[in-house]
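[job 4471] stage=fold_predict status=RUNNING
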Amino acid sequence: SCPASCDPSSTRSRSDREAVVGARILIVDDNPMNLKLARLAVMTEGHEADTASGASEAFDRLAEHLPDLILMDLQMPEVDGIELTLRLKAEARTTHIPVVALTAAAMESDRERALDAGCEGVILKPLDTRGLAEELAGYLGRREAA
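[job 4471] inference complete, writing structure tokens
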């Protein structure tokens, strides 16, 4: 039998993943179906999920309480995810919150723009709900270790 350490899909132990259950995650996406799917996937993993359909609603949610992580769609009308991330990283109150970009664009330039704006990483859409748990645990674990 292969120990967990040789399984390439398991970069974190089960106890590490369990340690980050119960995080509060804000999902910002202008597409109602994407919001619904991401919210369901996040809640299935034992996290609390708040949603916002754009920048204005995201700031309203952030005024209510700060999340442990933000999943940010890059392609939104009015204020896109890059601009919103730049604004969040410029504010002392929100600069510490990890932002992970959500995008259907697999171009390396999109990934670089997201990282340059302050995103911790990029998750491609459509969401792989099975892989999302590992990705969230990784980003939340990095925040806890900081």
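[job 4471] summary: Confidence is low (pLDDT under 50) at residues 1-19.
[job 4471] exit 0
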